[in-house]
Amino acid sequence: MKSDAHLHKAERITRQLAKIGPRFHEARVEAAMLAATHWTNRSLHILGILPEAHDMIHTDYLTGADHLRLKLVAPALLAAVEGIEELRAPYVRGAAPDPAAAGETAIRLLALVEAEARKVRAPELPFVTYSPHAT
């Protein structure tokens, strides 16, 4: 997906998220995760870590090298998106206590993801990817 499409989707999901009240914490966490994923993909494309033809689903699915690259150039963004991801198992799939606080945390982390993603700029030099099978 193109970077601009990720931007528009992230902004639209965030606007919709603002309409979801604290009682619906699962929806808040899931929407925050989805919007954060779009912000992260946009950043990965701008940075040249992933081509626009390839999107990340979860940060766990990035290669070790790509995860490290993102961590080096956008550590706060990566930490925030992974923080939202960590809320999913106990609060969306499980029944951990104080779910409303988890929803608020997801929204706070999403705001951080967005702020950090908006700072991302293309690097002066591209990342070099080594492939032992390249000819």
Element layout with pairings:
Layout: H1 3-17, H2 25-47, H3 64-73, H4 75-93, H5 99-119
Question: Structural class of the helices, strands and pairings?
Answer: mainly alpha
Note the main sheet. none
How many domain units?
1
- Low-pLDDT stretches are none
Measured distance between first and last alpha carbons: 28 Å
The SSE string, one letter per element, is: HHHHH
Determine the fraction of residues in helical runs and give it as a percent range.
Answer: 55-70%
Could you tell me the strand content as a percent range? under 5%
Q: Count every helix, treating DSSP H or I runs of 4 or more residues as helices.
A: 5
Shape: elongated
Tell me the radius of gyration: 16 Å
| Number of separate strands | 0
Mean pLDDT: 94
Commentary on this structure:
The chain has one domain (3-119). The model has no long low-confidence stretch (mean pLDDT 94). It has 135 residues and is an all-alpha fold. Helix 1 packs antiparallel against helix 2 (25-47), helix 2 (25-47) packs parallel to helix 5 (99-119) and helix 3 (64-73) crosses helix 4 (75-93). The protein has helices spanning 3-17, 25-47, 64-73, 75-93, 99-119.
Task: Give a quick set of tags describing it.
135 residues, mainly alpha, 5 helices
Entry summary:
The chain is an all-alpha fold and 135 residues long. Helix content is 65%, strand content 0%.
